[in-house]
Hints:
Number of helices: 5
Order of helices and strands: HHHHH
Helix content: over 70%
Oligomer: single chain
Largest sheet: none
Amino acid sequence: xxxxxxxxxxxxxxxxxxxxxxxxxxxxxxxxxxxxxxxxxxxxxxxxxxxxxxxxxxxxxxxxxxxxxxxxxxxxxxxxxxxxxxxxxxxxxxxxxxxxxxxxxxxxxxxxxxxxxxxxxxxxxxxxxxxxxxxxxxxxxxxxxxxxxxxxxxxxxx
Length: 158
């Protein structure tokens, strides 16, 4: 086969290679867009979890640091706390399904701190209530840090 015969069909090679490069280019663009969308959706869920945690922390801190007259009824408080913890747990389950690997140990500890002996809060010494409020804030900050670290480990900045 002479070079002249091959050159007659070079346009086929040009068209096929162009189409191939276009398809590869679109596949890369699609893959990156999908990756970014998943990251953004996960970040949005993480922000929601942090917001739920903050709401729970404010409720619990106000309960433990508030005076006797300002405190909610302990049954009402427990109901509100458990509802918020359940909602937060559902959000964390979704985040874990997305591969974040968030541990529930700190959430269990926070649950204990928020509800254990809450019915005795009106008869406890003020210093014990303040200590409980301080412990709540510490565990909440640890949880927030854990959430953010789990996200950073899954979606490391480039």
